[in-house]
């Protein structure tokens, strides 16, 4: 203890590069966005007018914003739950594999290394209404696939592409979590005549809860923010705004429409929303987690 | 020993002098553009030829992604005082650029201040009109301009027994009906860029306003009109055709083209600059290029269509020397030889009459059937205030809003009137917002 107190500056010194990066690339832009949210500005930054809360009232008074919010909720829940459920299933299966386990695991982790835009393009190629291989199969089965016109199909496409992309990340954590569960517990339960189903739900699943909770937070953040590239490369928010999530709307208004004030106000709102969501998750869900 | 030392110093000194000479004499002019692939190579070639033609200036082209990315990065660079001298901006960004007073140097001022003899009358008014003030002063230099035309699969036409390509939408309806009913093709026609071709150009060609205030040329208080003109009937027509297979919606940008290449659709409405693409992809069948149809119920003689594409804007914050170089480069760029070469290579429209005449002289249009259709469609008549172009703020978003509603109309979510009303309402919000930020 005494030695630590003698080096009061050292920890700060060691932390400083990281803190500087966070300050420059996170706090400074976030601070700028908050300021910008109270102004109306021309794209070139030649002049700006203070408008107080007008950007916020305008955003909160527009039907499109609530529509994007609804889209975001549907999209995020589907992606977070879908990516976690599938990853858990695959992790449980891969955990049992003995022969060639390494190969399976590598293949399952692979999609994580694919850039979001590339992943989006891959899916677009497969499901292109005119040229896609998968859409041709669907056509043969009597399903008329056209995500350029059908909003529901477009939503399904971005959800699938986003799940595929995130599944690997979840898989790694679930697999590690599964391997940390003492075999003796499962064996004892098996001797007590508990079937695989029961063993999973009464032993494995509760013991995985710290991992699951961590992944829930990470997946929510992923679905809210990091799916931008996938959406941009597949549907660009269309058709008819059916896949326009909040973060995509921030981009559209800011970088295509150059409405920096409104875009900044929306990103402040989004920041508050995700902050609140994370707080709720920690406040209520974390109590159920058994460490 | 001493002599050698001396000599060495002399050579070094000379080399240094030579270096500083070349560094001082050639002024660099940065040109940011959005032309990828083959067109990008052509842009580099144009710059290289200009650089070789004189030794005072060096134009340095650099590719910055698609149109909206190029515009965004130029704006960001301007805010950081790193703006390029020349930037290529798409036509829908025109209002944003021209209202950025203090950020841009209008081309007519640039040319007047330089010692170039610049004659605005040499340009094709149908092309430059989009980029001039309401009193005819050129704000930016047109670079790549195109206009929509119809590409027709002649084999399908023959199979269905349709001899002539109809000039009107009414005639087209019958012809497409025959094509679809005879089973010669699964779909009659499709279109790229629906808002640009089926609304912006439809309005211009029929001399009806797209927006008030002379389509925005008259002032920032322009508001859309497309929900109360013949444009509504036209979208209704397409919606009806979508039901019986005479029309198939194919996406907001160029995604519709493959359905023409594969022979699924008999006709494709697309940019005249798609000609090269159509030519290389339509290998299995004969095709022809036809003018955009008009509705005989709305107008007797159709107006010109309007352009799409991009123009070159000059940004503030450079030395007089740089601007002199930009003026010389623009003069070079608008010379008949360079224009004719660019136009013939890319399928974009020539911007001067001289370039068009040169092409005729060279026999280019006879050797390449279809390549003159767009020019004739543009220059056949004098543009009116409804067909000069659009000058609307937030136009990229307005177009996206319109496309969004068109998608909803074509997939049956909303009725035609309802969808266009919503597009107009939201677009007018954007116009008000632009007026507020720039007024």
From TrEMBL, chain A:
The chain crosses the membrane at residues 12-31, 73-94, 106-126, 154-178, 199-225, 264-285. It is a multi-pass membrane protein. Keywords: Cell inner membrane, Cell membrane, Membrane, Transmembrane, Transmembrane helix, Transport. InterPro entries: MetI-like, MetI-like_sf, UgpAE/MalFG_permease. GO terms for biological process: transmembrane transport. It holds the Pfam family BPD_transp_1. GO terms for cellular component: plasma membrane. It is found in: Cell inner membrane; Cell membrane. SUPFAM superfamilies: MetI-like. Residues 69-281 form the ABC transmembrane type-1 domain. Belongs to the binding-protein-dependent transport system permease family. UgpAE subfamily. The complex is composed of two ATP-binding proteins (UgpC), two transmembrane proteins (UgpA and UgpE) and a solute-binding protein (UgpB). This is sn-glycerol-3-phosphate transport system permease protein UgpA. It comes from Halomonas halmophila.
TrEMBL record, chain B:
Coiled coil: none annotated. It comes from the Bacteria. It is found in: Periplasm. Keywords: Signal, Transport. Its main location: periplasm. Residues 1-25 form the signal peptide. GO terms for cellular component: periplasmic space. Pfam families: SBP_bac_8. Belongs to the bacterial solute-binding protein 1 family. The complex is composed of two ATP-binding proteins (UgpC), two transmembrane proteins (UgpA and UgpE) and a solute-binding protein (UgpB). NCBIfam families: PRK10974.1. This is sn-glycerol-3-phosphate-binding periplasmic protein UgpB.
């Amino acid at each position: 203890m005494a030695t630590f107190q003698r080096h009061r500056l050292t920890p700060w010194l060691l932390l400083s590069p990281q803190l500087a990066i966070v300050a420059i690339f996170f706090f400074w832009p976030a601070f700028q966005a908050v300021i910008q949210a109270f102004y109306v500005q021309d794209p070139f930054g030649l002049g700006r007018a203070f408008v107080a809360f007008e950007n916020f009232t305008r955003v909160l008074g527009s039907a499109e914003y609530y529509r994007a919010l609804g889209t975001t909720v549907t999209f995020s829940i589907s992606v977070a739950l879908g990516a976690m459920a599938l990853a858990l299933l695959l992790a449980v299966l891969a955990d049992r594999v003995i022969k060639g386990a390494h190969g399976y695991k590598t293949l399952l982790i692979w999609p994580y290394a694919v850039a979001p835009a590339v992943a989006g393009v891959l899916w677009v190629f497969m499901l292109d209404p005119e040229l896609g291989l998968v859409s041709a199969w669907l056509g043969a089965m009597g399903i008329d696939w056209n995500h350029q016109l059908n909003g529901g199909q477009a939503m399904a496409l971005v959800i699938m592409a986003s799940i595929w992309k995130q599944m690997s990340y979840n898989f790694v954590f679930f697999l590690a979590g599964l391997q940390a569960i003492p075999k003796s517990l499962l064996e004892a339960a098996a001797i007590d005549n508990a079937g695989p189903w029961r063993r999973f739900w009464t032993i494995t699943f509760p013991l995985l809860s710290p991992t699951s909770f961590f992944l829930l937070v990470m997946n929510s953040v992923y679905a809210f923010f990091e799916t931008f590239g996938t959406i941009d490369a597949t549907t660009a928010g269309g058709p008819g705004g059916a896949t326009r999530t909040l973060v995509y709307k921030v981009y559209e208004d800011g970088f295509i429409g150059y409405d920096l004030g409104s875009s900044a106000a929306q990103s402040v709102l989004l920041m508050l929303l995700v902050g609140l969501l994370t707080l709720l998750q920690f406040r209520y869900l974390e109590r159920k987690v058994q460490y | 020993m001493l002599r050698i030392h001396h000599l060495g110093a002399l050579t070094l000194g000379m080399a240094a002098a030579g270096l500083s000479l070349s560094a001082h004499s050639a002024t660099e002019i940065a040109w940011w553009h959005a032309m990828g692939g083959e067109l990008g190579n052509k842009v580099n070639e144009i710059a290289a030829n200009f650089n070789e033609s004189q030794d005072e200036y060096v134009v340095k082209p650099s590719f910055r992604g698609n149109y909206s990315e190029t515009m965004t990065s130029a704006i960001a660079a301007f805010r950081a005082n790193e703006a390029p001298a020349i930037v290529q901006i798409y036509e829908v960004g025109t209002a944003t650029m021209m209202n950025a007073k203090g950020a841009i140097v209008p081309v007519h001022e640039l040319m007047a201040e330089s010692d170039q003899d610049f004659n605005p009358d040499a340009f094709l008014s149908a092309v430059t009109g989009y980029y001039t003030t309401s009193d005819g002063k050129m704000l930016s230099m047109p670079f790549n301009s195109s206009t929509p035309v119809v590409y027709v699969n002649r084999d399908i036409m023959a199979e269905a027994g349709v001899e002539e390509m109809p000039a009107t939408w009414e005639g087209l309806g019958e012809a497409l009906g025959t094509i679809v009913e005879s089973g010669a093709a699964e779909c009659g026609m499709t279109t790229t860029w629906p808002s640009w071709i089926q609304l912006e150009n439809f309005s211009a060609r029929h001399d009806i306003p797209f927006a008030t205030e002379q389509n925005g040329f008259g002032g920032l208080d322009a508001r859309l009109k497309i929900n109360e003109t013949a444009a509504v009937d036209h979208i209704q027509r397409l919606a009806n055709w979508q039901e019986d297979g005479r029309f198939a919606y194919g996406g907001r940008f160029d995604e519709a083209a493959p359905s023409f290449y594969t022979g699924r659709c008999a006709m494709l409405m697309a940019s005249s600059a798609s000609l090269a693409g159509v030519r290389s992809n339509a290998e299995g069948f004969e095709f022809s290029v036809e003018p955009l149809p008009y509705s005989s119920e709305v107008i007797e003689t159709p107006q010109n269509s309007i352009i799409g594409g991009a123009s070159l804007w000059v940004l503030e914050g450079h030395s007089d020397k740089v601007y002199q170089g930009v003026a010389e480069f623009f003069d070079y760029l608008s010379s008949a030889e360079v224009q004719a070469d660019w136009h013939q290579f890319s399928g974009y429209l020539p911007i001067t009459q001289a370039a068009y005449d040169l092409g005729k002289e060279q026999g280019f249009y006879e050797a390449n059937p279809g390549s003159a259709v767009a020019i004739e469609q543009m220059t056949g008549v004098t543009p009116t205030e409804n067909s000069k172009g659009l000058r609307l703020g937030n136009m990229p978003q307005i177009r996206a809003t319109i496309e969004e509603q068109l998608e909803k109309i074509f997939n049956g979510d909303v009725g035609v009137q309802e969808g266009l009303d919503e597009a107009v309402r939201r677009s007018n919000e954007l116009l008000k917002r632009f007026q507020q930020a720039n007024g």
